[in-house]
């Protein structure tokens, strides 16, 4: 849809051009547009690129010329940062948290979205409105009692405890997104299966939900991204260094080696690279997911 | 919704009692599917939120018993100079966070809509800072804003006066603005992509009509583009109020609200009150007040939407 709109817009000036003054003005302005776009691109990416430079430079070189290209390719910073920061452990923790969040969110949101799109539940509009409005409320509203409740339940310093919070905070977004996919599937499918005697859970998991697989892929990507990057809940609920996810372990590492930018940059790249690679590979899905319901 | 008539058309075939029972069963089934979501939400969000309301009227420390103190926490909030300062910072934050990224986002989106090649590439590049973790972005800018070898230091060495040894994050005069700058840096590209998508939805014929009337590009932008994406602009402006209140990560990571409270926001202040000062009751009152402001914004949003600005 975007593509067609773009091509329409693109054609419009071409039609009118001959009628107006022909010429250089237009091309110059197009050139100016590209120039401005490149400047903006440098502004957006430049700071992140300096991470790569710094990770490859020595600290003396960073001190003397912080923004310059590295003169040598010294990869030892990565090995050193990996070992000193215990990133093997914390990255594993983060992968567990990501996987747990994704699976749980998909199950919880999948079931809810099925009810909200296929079952004509009375009161479903109120639930949808609540999901939309509720996710706008600040975490500060429930943070303090939640922390003491989780302490009582033994869920602080506990990966599952953190994962449950992510389920609860991400499921509204996931439900709304999946619902928008499921609304396009006619209820006749479910109705036909129901007449054949299939149970409701069979209909949901075998027939209807698989049809919304693109929605599940988007939800999985976004929930995994949030779980990987998440900081606020992680730093509040996980204090044990061996249970930390990569985000808070990176922060601790940065505090500890605050003057060692070679190591800090290398550690930052551990956290950054998986996200950027995945984003570049699945750009459309990320952008669609994050701009539709991802406003959080 | 559309399928309801199809379903009721079957109803006359069955006796009424069976219909109502199967309908009740279906309703129960529906809520059964919703149960995991609702239980989780009650456990994590609704329950603790109600507890916050209760604790905001007590002197609870976070441990042990809570004594009812009436409105003491709220009267205290009105006289709290730290809170007043934090609210002022939230105000500054809101104005900057609303204006700067929107202006840059509009510029980026407008430029994107004028080109044909590399559109997707630029879009991806602008979006990347938004998907990068706050801890990483904050670390990058801590380096770049450092007085010993950041950008300012470099400019100073090149002979730019007055910038060589500015500790942007360590100076009370610049700390808030510096963190806000970093947040805007990671945010504007996201807005650019949203605005760009909205601009694709503007009817191209409107531009043709404006051109026939001899409108300049700036006039077209003002008279066609901006009204065309107005629902997006209004929605994002309202959400910006909420997001400004929620702002936490970058402040907490880069300055911890300091130095000397110069970059403290209500959210970071509330966090400190709860977990450093052990005044959970007072923190609850602050958290509840933030939620009430958010709720008010949502009411305004619903009101404006009903009044029909979306058409």
CATH topology category name of the largest domain in chain A: MetI-like fold
Q: Name the CATH superfamily classification of the largest domain in chain A.
A: MetI-like
Helix/strand class of chain B: mainly alpha
Nearest-integer average pLDDT of chain A = 85
Number of strands of chain A: 0
**Number of helical elements of chain B:** 14
CATH class designation of the largest domain in chain B: Mainly Alpha
Would you mind describing this structure in some detail?
The complex is a heterodimer of chains A (296) and B (311). Chain A is mainly alpha-helical. Chain A has 2 domains: 20-74; 81-292, MetI-like fold. Helices cover 76% and strands 0% of the residues of chain A. Chain A has 15 helices and no strands. In chain A, helix 5 packs antiparallel against helix 13 (246-256). Chain A is globular. With 311 residues, chain B is mainly alpha-helical. Chain B is built from 14 helices and no strands. In chain B, helix 5 packs antiparallel against helix 8 (175-200) and helix 11 (230-246) packs antiparallel against helix 14. The longest helix of chain B has 40 residues, at 16-55. The interface between A and B is large, with 102 and 104 residues.
């Amino acid at each position: 849809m975007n593509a067609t709109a773009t091509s329409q817009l693109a054609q419009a000036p071409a039609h009118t051009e001959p009628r107006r003054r022909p010429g250089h003005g237009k091309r110059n302005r197009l050139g100016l547009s590209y120039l401005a776009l490149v400047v903006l691109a440098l502004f957006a990416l430049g700071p992140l690129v300096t991470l790569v430079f710094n990770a490859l430079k020595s600290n003396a070189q960073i001190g003397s010329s912080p923004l310059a290209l590295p003169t040598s390719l010294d990869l030892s910073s990565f090995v050193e940062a990996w070992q000193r920061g215990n990133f093997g452990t914390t990255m594993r923790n983060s992968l567990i948290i990501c996987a747990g969040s994704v699976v749980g969110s998909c199950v919880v949101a999948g079931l809810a979205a099925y009810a909200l799109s296929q079952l004509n539940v009375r009161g479903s509009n109120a639930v949808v409105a609540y999901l939309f409005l509720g996710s706008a409320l600040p975490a500060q509203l429930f943070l303090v009692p939640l922390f003491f409740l989780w302490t009582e339940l033994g869920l602080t310093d506990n990966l599952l405890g953190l994962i449950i919070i992510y389920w609860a905070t991400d499921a509204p977004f996931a439900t709304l997104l999946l619902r928008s996919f499921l609304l396009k599937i006619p209820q006749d499918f479910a109705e036909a299966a129901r007449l054949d005697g299939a149970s409701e859970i069979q209909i949901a998991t075998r027939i209807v939900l698989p049809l919304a697989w693109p929605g599940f892929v988007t939800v999985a990507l976004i929930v995994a991204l949030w779980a990987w990057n998440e900081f606020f809940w992680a730093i509040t609920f996980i204090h044990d260094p061996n249970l930390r996810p990569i985000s808070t372990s990176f922060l601790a590492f940065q505090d500890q080696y605050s003057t060692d930018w070679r190591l800090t940059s290398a550690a930052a790249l551990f956290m950054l690279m998986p996200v950027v690679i995945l984003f570049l590979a699945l750009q459309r899905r990320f952008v669609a997911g994050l701009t539709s319901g991802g406003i959080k | 919704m559309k399928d309801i008539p199809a379903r009721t058309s079957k109803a006359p075939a069955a006796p009424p009692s069976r219909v109502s029972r199967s309908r009740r069963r279906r309703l129960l089934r529906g809520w059964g599917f919703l149960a995991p979501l609702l239980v989780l939400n009650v456990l994590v969000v609704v329950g603790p939120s109600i507890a916050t309301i209760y604790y905001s009227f007590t002197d609870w420390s976070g441990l042990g018993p809570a004594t009812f103190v009436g409105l003491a926490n709220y009267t205290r909030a009105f006289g709290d100079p730290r809170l007043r300062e934090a609210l002022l910072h939230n105000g500054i934050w809101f104005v900057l966070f609303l204006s700067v990224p929107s202006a840059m986002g509009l510029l980026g989106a407008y430029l994107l809509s004028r080109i044909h090649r590399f559109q997707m590439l630029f879009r991806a590049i602008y979006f990347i800072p938004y998907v990068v973790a706050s801890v990483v972005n904050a670390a990058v800018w801590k380096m770049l804003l450092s007085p010993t070898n950041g950008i300012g230091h470099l400019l100073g060495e090149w002979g730019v006066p007055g910038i060589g040894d500015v500790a942007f994050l360590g100076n009370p005069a610049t700390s808030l603005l510096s963190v806000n700058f970093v947040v805007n840096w990671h945010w504007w590209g996201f807005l650019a992509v949203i605005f760009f998508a909205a601009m694709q939805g503007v009817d191209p014929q409107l531009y043709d009509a404006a051109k026939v009337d001899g409108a300049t590009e700036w006039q077209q932008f003002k008279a066609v583009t901006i009204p065309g994406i107005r629902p997006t602009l209004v929605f994002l402006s309202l959400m910006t109020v909420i997001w400004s209140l929620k702002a936490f990560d970058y402040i907490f990571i880069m300055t911890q609200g300091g130095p000397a409270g110069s970059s403290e926001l209500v959210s970071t202040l509330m966090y400190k009150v709860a977990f450093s000062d052990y005044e959970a009751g007072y923190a609850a009152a602050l958290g509840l007040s933030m939620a009430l402001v958010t709720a008010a914004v949502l009411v305004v949003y619903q009101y404006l939407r009903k009044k029909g600005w979306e058409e």
